[in-house]
Amino acid sequence: MRLSTQRVPDNPKFGSPSDFKRAIADLKKTFVQDGVISTDVHDLEAHGFSTMDYHPATPHTVVVYPKSTEDVVKVVKIATKYRMPVIPYSGATSLEGHFRGHPVGGICVDLNYMNKILEIHEDDSDLVCQAGAGWMDINETLKQKGIPLFFPIDPGPGASLGGMLSTGCSGTNAVRYGTAKGEWFINATVVLPSGEVIKTKRRSRKSAAGFDTTKLFIGAEGTLGIVTEVTIRLAPVLPTTVAVVHFPDVGSATAASIEAIKQGAGIQCVELLDAIAMKATNNYGMSTRKWPEKDSLIFKFQGSSESSLKETAKIVQRVVAKHGGTGFVLAKNAKEADDLWADRKNLYHSGLSLVEGARGLTTDVCVPVSRLPDLIHETKKDLEKVGLVTSIVGHVGDGNFHALLLFKTDEELAIAQQAAARIVHRAIALDGTCTGEHGVGIGKRKYLIEELGAGTVDLMKTVKRAIDPLGIFNPGKLYPDPIHANKFQPQ
Ligand SMILES: Cc1cc2nc3c(=O)[nH]c(=O)nc-3n(C[C@H](O)[C@H](O)[C@H](O)COP(=O)(O)OP(=O)(O)OC[C@H]3O[C@@H](n4cnc5c(N)ncnc54)[C@H](O)[C@@H]3O)c2cc1C
């Protein structure tokens, strides 16, 4: 098998420290109004680091807050002139070191002032907004305006459309609505490394005009350009409710979820919480209930009427009972449904509460759903031996799960990282992926050749070189180095 040996692009040559000083002077001359350019030490650190991951990091050299696509073009032209790394930044909720500062420094382009909804087309079920608009704010605005539509892609709270498109994210709703890699982004306006502005497509729902250039930027993690505007598709808001059920083991819970989905009933989400995650929920103290500390599923049902929700609940209750499900609780009203679902939404923080003062490492593998019971079984056996407190929470309907490994010391972090690597190799061996939704960033680069093969990785690098020949867009992220090819020895 051929191993990828190409660099991305060949040995990028960044400017010198004095070039970067000249770049900052140019930025200050270009943007004379207050608050657009920041070299404040705290600002540089806050944008270059994240407490949510454990990758090496350096502060950026400067943070720029553009207000328009034209501003972004000006920034990109200055970055190109001085060969300065450019790191796009939106909601800052990504988990794999995606927006970390580069060792030579760089310009962090923070799109948070570009957060406006520009057009809402209720009859077309779509919306045009700037890339810094948050998915939760968009849904809240639609609700306030009485428009019965919503954007169903639901990653971390605080994520914005530019970052969501760039990570190819998803969330609990993916069972019903798919991911950012589906058809939820109708088009994107992008500032390319050349400074040229392109719009990938018009607003019509369908187009067969050439290949899908919107998709080129989905999952590109800011390495091919800066997205400044998007048109997104919206879905009708339908009545939902929530149910919880407990199982003797994770295998039965997973098998029940697979069979329930196959019934074609109105399931919007199905989430697995292992017994330790349930214990964490009790421990955390935010839940309105004390749960049995057993492996459990939380379902969100969706239907066009109350009676269709009840019908779905009946079908699912019958299926889960076949797999040993007990204690089936169906929310009696909207408030109770919100309370039950909040227990799922609080899981990261409740998981951390299991060990006082601990930090958490989260994994993100995904396999074909039929392989999930094997993967979780093997993973739990492995995690029992590592001597750390760990819990498993899964978007089980998609074959995607997150193990949360708690640690307090550097030695424990190393143990957690080794266990996380074993989970990745196990998932890839089951025809799965190192990342179901969080993306590659710095943390998953080393697995890409093993997962995708050298040819596919080389194709990605060829596209990167064509669009960003200077290699200044988010360098050090996404694409594996040749050293990773040497590490992966195919059987
Ligand atoms: C508590 C929590 C729960 C989470 N749950 C989920 C989940 O269920 N599903 C899921 O998929 N993820 C989840 N995540 C991860 C995260 O929310 C997603 O990766 C999200 O898509 C990141 O969006 P962001 O706006 O925060 O992007 P950022 O973190 O700001 O950036 C992400 C990447 O995109 C690039 N980028 C940002 N903006 C642009 C732009 N305008 N143009 C080009 N490139 C850009 C950045 O350079 C970076 O590489 C979770 C995170 C947290 C903290």
TrEMBL record:
SUPFAM superfamilies: FAD-binding/transporter-associated domain-like (SSF56176), FAD-linked oxidases, C-terminal domain (SSF55103). Keywords: FAD, Flavoprotein, Mitochondrion, Oxidoreductase, Transit peptide. Its cofactor is FAD. Residues 55-237 form the FAD-binding PCMH-type domain. This is D-lactate dehydrogenase (cytochrome). Belongs to the FAD-binding oxidoreductase/transferase type 4 family. It is an enzyme of class 1 (oxidoreductase). Transmembrane segments: none annotated. It catalyses: (R)-lactate + 2 Fe(III)-[cytochrome c] = 2 Fe(II)-[cytochrome c] + pyruvate + 2 H(+). Pfam families: FAD-oxidase_C (PF02913), FAD_binding_4 (PF01565). It is found in: Mitochondrion. PROSITE patterns: FAD_PCMH (PS51387). GO terms for cellular component: mitochondrion. One of its GO terms (biological process) is lactate catabolic process. Its EC number is 1.1.2.4. Its main location: mitochondrion. One of its GO terms (molecular function) is D-lactate dehydrogenase (cytochrome) activity.
